[in-house]
């Protein structure tokens, strides 16, 4: 029980620090070009995210090969060195359980970005973009139920 309370406190601290730092902006959009319903369903099935308890994190612009990790609790759900394709503006994607907070860590900026479970449960697709300003990186999260074309 103490461990769970400590974890909850750590997540809240990350959220508070992230909000105060101004390094993460958030938006909610469904008004961009989307793939067909059949393509969307095929993608969700391929990612094992067709159930209501799973969402997909899509890394988009600004990733240059720095190590990105994602954890839920003590469990690592993603670890890679994504590089954004300049034509598709896509770096990588993975599905995760939307029943607990997802913490994404960027090794370059040393920043942690939290995707709270309550928001992840409402949106199937969460887009994460990285923008460089001088020697720091800022992040933008877009919550959506629209899958944009990936190719």
UniProtKB/TrEMBL annotation:
Concerning PROSITE patterns, the annotation shows: PROKAR_LIPOPROTEIN (PS51257)
Specify the domain of life of the species encoding this protein.
Bacteria
Instruction: Name the chain's protein.
Output: Lipoprotein
């Amino acid at each position: 029980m103490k461990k769970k309370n400590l974890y909850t406190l750590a997540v809240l601290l990350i959220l508070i620090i992230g909000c105060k730092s101004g390094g993460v902006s958030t938006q909610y959009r469904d008004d961009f070009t989307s793939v067909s319903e059949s393509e969307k369903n095929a993608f969700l099935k391929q990612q094992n995210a067709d159930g209501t308890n799973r969402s997909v994190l899509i890394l988009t612009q600004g990733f240059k090969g720095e190590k990105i990790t994602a954890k839920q609790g003590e469990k690592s759900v993603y670890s890679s060195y994504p590089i954004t394709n300049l034509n598709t503006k896509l770096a990588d994607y993975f599905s995760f359980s939307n029943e607990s907070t997802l913490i994404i860590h960027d090794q370059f900026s040393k920043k942690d970005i939290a995707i709270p479970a309550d928001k992840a449960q409402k949106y199937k697709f969460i887009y994460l973009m990285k923008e460089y300003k001088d020697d720091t990186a800022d992040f933008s999260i877009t919550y959506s139920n629209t899958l944009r074309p990936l190719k």
